[in-house]
Design brief:
Distance between the termini: 29 Å
Shape: globular
Oligomer: single chain
Structural class: mainly beta
Mean pLDDT: 91
Order of helices and strands: EEEEEEEEHEHEHEEEEEEHEHEEEE
Number of strands: 21
Largest sheet: 14 strands, mixed
Helix content: 10-25%
Number of helices: 5
Length: 329
Amino acid sequence: MNWKKGYSASFLAMRVNPKTWQDLEEIKILDGSISRDDSSDLLESASVTMTEAIGEIWVRIYLVARQNGEAARVPLFTGLTSEPTRNIRGNHESYDVECYSVLKPCADRMLPLGWYAAYGSDGTEIIADLFKQCGIKVNSEFGGGYLAANIVAEAGETYLTMAKKVAKAINWQIRPNGLGEVSILPYSNIVKARFDGENDVVEPAVEDSQDWFSCPNVLRVTSENKTAIFKDEDIKSPLSIPNRGREIWKEENVTLPVGVSLGDYAMLRLKELQKPLRILKYSRRYDPDVNIGDLISMGYPGIEGNYRVGSQNVQIGHSCRTEEVSYGT
């Protein structure tokens, strides 16, 4: 199916067996949306309206797309439902249900006291093991993400918060797919899709902004028991303390790359953080090949270039409209 061309969209929800992850019976849904956000705790969620109260179960939502006699069934989301809210309008009832990502069991389970991810170990294997202990199916690349220092569990550390710390330390990403499988993979610089006006995939209204205001000029970096502070006091820098007349602080806990001092890291990292972030907000036709963390290319006048997808909101409706936020690279 050519996802750049128009298609009709309908949706299907299925009850899921959490032991086999196979579909069981169909559940009627009326509408809703699926949210994906690289900065959120659970990475994705869904809000749906149903015709009946179903309690706490695992569900899977599919897009059924049709185009010129061809049909495709695409899994969009697998997650855990919460207790619904009942809506009564005369003789009609409906139920609003919030659905949690497949990562929810990892967020609810705490690590044993004293647990740590060891220096030199493969971070991808550590993350996969944490997920598997919570009953999550892992479909992952392994190797290449080795830890440069121990990462010790703090008070209240969950399986998920530790997995995300390890992923950040090795600069890999955690990504659930529509079937509820979780991948651990490096960020790719391969462009997954190009949007350039062909077939009007992107709607005309695009919000283009740059975030200068929140750029810091002071960075405090902590690694294990050491701390370094770097201040931008360069009179030639438009974001420096002298030119802005105020200090804007940011703090990070990091695992240092091998051979890099804490002071040098703080200086280089502050320069990265001071690059004004270009933000695009737009709506487009849904494309199952593009997810959060992916690189896309824009060919529209004034916004040409490559962008990294940060969040998506996929509407469970007639056109499967997707609201997306992407960041300049």
